[in-house]
């Protein structure tokens, strides 16, 4: 029988590294009442060494602590649930089958509608499955002194360059157009077989498509990079104002090639940047985070990929988060320890795949469609960037449905 650990050591605190090497040798000889795993998302890979070693420990109760339990991957979620309740969540294949909500469709538009419906059904089923096992705590539940946060959607409009690319994508003529334009016999490095992804790339920056044909490793002049893309043009305007007001900024993108373009842009503008993506090792991550958070640091920009930049990263020196093409990573700067009000800017492209696929297929335009298909004016940009309403400490019930502080919830090219 395993020995009791006794009253002298009622709690053992250890690191993952020690647990991995000592689980079979020492820790498995004790009956554990509770095992608490911080940064529990580290167990999302069902084949990882840490997970295998922890399963050797005899334990009555298990608790995972994590800020990111799910990242669009059912296999990762199953790995966590299998560790918590292996008797219930035994089979990965069976777990995946619960979400097989596929249906047949005749047309492309019908497929998109069915896919959207399927996603909604998956989310509803996930909520039902997780409800008995997941205790969710918001930061506001445990830290009342945390500064307030506001999210602002800024709508960019497609440039003529992007509209041209979009038309060629829809008509399946982009490859021929680029080959003729660049006067090259090169072909595409991959097939344009997923129209939705290619349309999204065009929104993020058309260079993602053009670079697949261009054998050069050099970017065009920075002004061309800015003016080719409505969203990048909006980003440039926003950053100019943020830096003039001495804010520190996190910028997230799921595409490392977008981070590469931003690296080039900042380098041409004379700014040094910190950057974390999947290729950056742990020691280098820690060094950059420490430098960025230092009160005397000259770094004003931190570029992060959404996958690599979402796990265990605390960047409270920043008071501004820009989500270039995603919507979940805003809490890297709005965390316990933050002392300044936080603005989150989510950039979206109006009248595109990013805004609403069905709007592209409608003949008529509503008043709201026209509102967001307008570039935000310099005056309105100044208004939405104002943070005085967050500093004033107004409670939610002091703001009505039409305004936040003195700022309307919607205007031409923006939405709070």
From TrEMBL:
Keyword Nucleotide-binding tagged: no
PROSITE patterns recorded: HELICASE_ATP_BIND_1, HELICASE_CTER
GO function terms (MF aspect): ATP binding; hydrolase activity
Domain of life: Eukaryota
Domain Helicase ATP-binding stretches: 1-87
InterPro entries in UniProt: Helicase_ATP-bd, Helicase_C-like, P-loop_NTPase, SNF2-like_sf, SNF2/RAD54-like_C, SNF2_N
Kinase recorded as keyword: no
Domain called Helicase C-terminal: residue spans: 234-382
Residues in the signal sequence: none
Coiled-coil stretches noted in the UniProt entry, renumbered to this chain: none
Gene3D superfamilies: P-loop containing nucleotide triphosphate hydrolases, Tandem AAA-ATPase domain
Protein name, UniProt field: Helicase C-terminal domain-containing protein
